[in-house]
Design brief:
- The chain is an alpha+beta fold and 112 residues long.
- A hairpin with an 8-residue loop joins strand 2 and strand 3.
- It is globular and about 45 Å long.
């Protein structure tokens, strides 16, 4: 919903120390509560796009939406539908143009 209104999103790449926070955020909807606070993550204003970024992530891409597709249930293999979409809440996939990419010095360890 936020992406629809703002036309922007960020891709935040966490380090391994954020594994628990990633698991928590990936398993809950933001509609049901403040999952960032629960995961102890800090949203901050993006530098170029209107979407927030996560202060704790060492690599961040800020993007504007250029296209989107709705997931078509009949085009997914049964195992994915049953596992990821058991509740029937199919996602929308967004494609973006990268406006800004930045990495903290600590990101070199993540990239090898």
């Amino acid at each position: 919903e936020c992406i629809e209104h703002s036309g922007a999103f960020s891709v935040n790449v966490p380090g391994p120390e954020l594994a628990d926070a990633v698991n928590l955020c990936g398993s809950r909807s933001g509609r049901d509560g403040d999952k960032l606070a629960e995961a102890r993550l800090t949203a901050e204003k993006g530098k170029l796009a209107s979407a927030p970024t996560l202060a704790e992530c060492p690599i961040v891409y800020e993007c504007n939406v250029v296209h989107h597709n709705d997931v078509v249930p009949g085009q997914l293999v049964k195992e994915i539908v049953e596992g990821a979409y058991a509740g029937g809440d199919f996602h929308r996939v967004y494609f973006g143009r990268i406006l800004s990419a930045r990495a903290a010095r600590s990101a070199a360890k993540l990239l090898g």
